[in-house]
Input
Amino acid sequence: MKKELIFPLTLILLDVGAAVFYGFSGDWRKAVYWIAAAVLNAAVTF
Output
């Protein structure tokens, strides 16, 4: 793994983690927001 990808991958994983947390708590708007953030970060990174 390239050294440059460690930080973006960490941010993507945190975004997905936040989405899972909000999804389980029932706040679907925030869950969708964090999934969208993860997808956007992945699109920009890769």
About this structure: Residues 19 and 31 are 4 Å apart (CA to CA). The helical segments are 6-25, 28-45. The chain has two helices and no strands.
